[in-house]
Design brief:
about 20% helix
Length: about 110
């Protein structure tokens, strides 16, 4: 299972944007990424947003190209529980595994 604590996965439509793009687009209109995005744990310019867990989840799913540009892992932003900070965790080692986990391919 990709994310046992979630019930819905919504995939983005191309063109995809990076987290760095999302931060730039938000500009002064919001500080979500700075406050909650655990940006110190990832390379925002190498994290391509491919989905999330539905309306209001604020938990993006990304291809993270920093460690392996040819076969990047899939990360998701997991919200911390009381007193814990949000963290990026690996949900799948690569896109093929992600596609199998969510039932896109068998």
């Amino acid at each position: 299972m990709f994310a046992e604590d979630e019930t819905l996965i919504c995939l983005e439509r191309p063109p995809f944007r990076t987290i760095a793009d999302a931060v730039r687009q938000a500009g002064s209109q919001g500080d979500f990424w700075q406050r909650f995005g655990a940006l110190h744990q990832i390379a925002p310019d190498q994290a391509l947003i491919i989905g999330d867990f539905g309306m209001g989840s604020d938990s993006p799913i990304v291809l993270h190209f920093r460690e392996n540009a040819a076969d990047p892992p899939i990360l998701r932003l997991r919200w911390g529980t009381r007193g814990e900070r949000n963290a990026w965790i690996q949900g799948a080692p690569n896109f093929d595994a992600f596609a199998r986990l969510i039932g896109l391919v068998t």
